[in-house]
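Hi, here's the filled form for the chain we discussed.

Project: internal
Contact: R.S.
Residues: 189
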Amino acid sequence: MKLNNSIVIIALLFTISINAQKDKLLYYEIPEASENFTAGTVAARLVDGLGFRYHHASEGLTEKDLKFSPSEGARSAEETLQHIYDLSKIIVNACLHKPNNREKEALTYAQLRAKTLQNFKTAADILRSSDDISEFTLNFGDNKIPFWNNINGPIADAIWHAGQLATIRRMSGNPINSKVNHFNGTVRQ
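And the returned structure, exactly as it came back:
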């Protein structure tokens, strides 16, 4: 019986370790900058910067943080996470040439965070490899909107809300890691 318990504990610790490493890898630090400046690499770097900021603004939120709202009528941290996820779907859908819809998914905090980060990574990877980002129009049914609007719309809005998330968590008593260097996109050891 003791051997079985030991195996279960080891397996659990291994799973936790793998999940922590996965979390650390996806925008824990910003990817290395491209050597070439193209529309695609610049747009990708913008999304990578967003992913990095979002990673750290959303990392380690507690139930108290998620429910916290700075004032009556303002979004809670959890509602802000949902909004950023919705924006991430618009950003990635443009890169995947997919139409947008307003379907809501019931996701846990961990799922919401992971899917948002993955959407940013997918979009950035596609943009980075593109020679012509004008092909990535926003698709709202019959309404096709140029990529320019993705920059000043969902991407800029998501950056704005990642900053709000950092402020909300500070107000709830759980500020982001002070070792995060937004300028360099790194975390000091």
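Let me know if anything looks off before we file it.
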